[in-house]
């Protein structure tokens, strides 16, 4: 039986915890952790499985599968602690894996301990097709992320460039460039571009457009891929999480679906 530990109990971590608690994922919710320990404790008390609230080291010791749902900065610490102790890990803050050295370190730890690193599709659709297409030649990959103001507010790129997001009254492309840069400029907004880069043609050749769109209420991601296989286009209009407007509900659902797949013998999809 999987004994899951979750680091980060915000919008995604809470949804995952509730899904395990209610039996949607056939596993035990062993422990949770958040840097707001008191909040994590009150959340744990609302769950029927009453998970322990434990700092990273103890959480890893008590669990046999660790979920990172915290921040890009947390990925290194969580990944190394979990894989180093022989636990598989699921990473939500995928942008951290743009750091080639970190990615290689985590890969090699996983290989040595016969563990896996799971990266869910998150808030995008179509990674299955891109993964298949990448077996042959891919020429171009573009992702366009459109979010309402609240979905982008506070991003380093916006702050650094003094963009007054409240003065934007029509759909405006504020960034076009490689995923390698986008993921640093919008760390809480375009992790999807990182997942796409990992399955496709890498962080430098994946082009990201970020659009502030005050006319919409959903987080929209569009992917376009051209290659030897033909062409692929996906479009998803995500309901934002009620807890965190930057994060789409689908991202949490994708994490839950991935955990279900990890825990069950039947695996479907590319
Ligand atoms: N792969 C994908 O498609 C998607 C990925 N994401 C990413 O997934 C991650 C989780 O998203 P979400 O739940 O919406 O984020 P939230 O901000 O709602 O929740 C994250 C929680 O983790 C806490 N936290 C941050 N760093 C640490 C740490 N080192 N140790 C313990 N707790 C920590 C945060 O505390 P505090 O508030 O103090 O920072 C917060 O309570 C984010 O990095 C987000 O960008 C989001 C959407 C889609
Ligand atoms: O949830 C979303 O729509 C996408 C997101 O924030 C991310 O990829 O970081």
UniProtKB/TrEMBL annotation:
<keyword id="KW-0521">NADP</keyword>
<dbReference type="InterPro" id="IPR022487">
    <property type="entry name" value="Asp_DH_arc"/>
</dbReference>
<dbReference type="GO" id="GO:0009435">
    <property type="term" value="P:NAD+ biosynthetic process"/>
</dbReference>
<dbReference type="Pfam" id="PF03447">
    <property type="entry name" value="NAD_binding_3"/>
</dbReference>
<keyword id="KW-0662">Pyridine nucleotide biosynthesis</keyword>
<keyword id="KW-0560">Oxidoreductase</keyword>
<feature type="active site">
    <location>
        <position position="221"/>
    </location>
</feature>
<protein>
    <recommendedName>
        <fullName>L-aspartate dehydrogenase</fullName>
        <ecNumber>1.4.1.21</ecNumber>
    </recommendedName>
</protein>
<comment type="function">
    <text>Specifically catalyzes the NAD or NADP-dependent dehydrogenation of L-aspartate to iminoaspartate.</text>
</comment>
<dbReference type="GO" id="GO:0033735">
    <property type="term" value="F:aspartate dehydrogenase [NAD(P)+] activity"/>
</dbReference>
<feature type="binding site">
    <location>
        <position position="191"/>
    </location>
    <ligand>
        <name>NAD(+)</name>
    </ligand>
</feature>
<dbReference type="InterPro" id="IPR002811">
    <property type="entry name" value="Asp_DH"/>
</dbReference>
<comment type="pathway">
    <text>Cofactor biosynthesis; NAD(+) biosynthesis; iminoaspartate from L-aspartate (dehydrogenase route): step 1/1.</text>
</comment>
<feature type="domain" description="Aspartate dehydrogenase">
    <location>
        <begin position="168"/>
        <end position="256"/>
    </location>
</feature>
<dbReference type="InterPro" id="IPR005106">
    <property type="entry name" value="Asp/hSer_DH_NAD-bd"/>
</dbReference>
<dbReference type="Pfam" id="PF01958">
    <property type="entry name" value="Asp_DH_C"/>
</dbReference>
<dbReference type="GO" id="GO:0051287">
    <property type="term" value="F:NAD binding"/>
</dbReference>
<comment type="similarity">
    <text>Belongs to the L-aspartate dehydrogenase family.</text>
</comment>
<feature type="domain" description="Aspartate/homoserine dehydrogenase NAD-binding">
    <location>
        <begin position="8"/>
        <end position="120"/>
    </location>
</feature>
<dbReference type="GO" id="GO:0050661">
    <property type="term" value="F:NADP binding"/>
</dbReference>
<dbReference type="InterPro" id="IPR011182">
    <property type="entry name" value="L-Asp_DH"/>
</dbReference>
<keyword id="KW-0520">NAD</keyword>
<dbReference type="InterPro" id="IPR020626">
    <property type="entry name" value="Asp_DH_prok"/>
</dbReference>
<dbReference type="InterPro" id="IPR036291">
    <property type="entry name" value="NAD(P)-bd_dom_sf"/>
</dbReference>
<feature type="binding site">
    <location>
        <position position="123"/>
    </location>
    <ligand>
        <name>NAD(+)</name>
    </ligand>
</feature>
<dbReference type="GO" id="GO:0016639">
    <property type="term" value="F:oxidoreductase activity, acting on the CH-NH2 group of donors, NAD or NADP as acceptor"/>
</dbReference>
């Amino acid at each position: 039986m999987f004994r899951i530990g979750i680091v980060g109990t915000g919008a995604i971590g809470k949804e995952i915890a509730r899904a395990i608690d209610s039996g949607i994922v056939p596993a035990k919710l062993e422990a949770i952790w958040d840097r707001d320990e008191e909040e994590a404790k009150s959340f744990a008390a609302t769950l029927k499985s009453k998970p322990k609230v434990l700092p990273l080291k103890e959480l890893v010791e008590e669990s046999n599968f660790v979920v990172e749902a915290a921040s890009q900065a947390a990925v290194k610490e969580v990944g190394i602690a979990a894989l180093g102790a022989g636990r598989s890990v699921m990473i939500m803050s995928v942008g951290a894996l743009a750091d080639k050295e970190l990615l290689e370190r985590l890969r090699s730890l996983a290989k040595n301990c016969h563990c896996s690193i799971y990266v869910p599709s998150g808030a995008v659709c179509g990674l299955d097709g891109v993964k298949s297409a990448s077996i042959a030649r891919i020429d171009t990959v573009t992702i366009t992320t459109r979010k309402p103001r609240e979905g982008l507010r506070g991003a380093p790129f916006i702050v650094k460039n003094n963009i007054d997001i409240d003065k934007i009254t029509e759909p405006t492309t504020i960034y076009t460039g490689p995923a390698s840069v986008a993921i640093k400029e919008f760390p809480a907004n375009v992790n999807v571009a990182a997942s796409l880069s990992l399955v496709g043609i890498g962080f430098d050749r994946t082009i990201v457009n970020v659009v502030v769109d005050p006319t919409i209420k959903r987080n929209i991601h569009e992917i376009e891929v051209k290659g030897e296989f033909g062409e692929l286009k996906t479009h998803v209009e995500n309901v934002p999480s009620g807890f965190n407007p930057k994060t789409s509900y689908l991202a949490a659902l994708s994490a839950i679906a991935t955990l279900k797949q990890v825990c069950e013998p039947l695996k479907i999809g590319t």
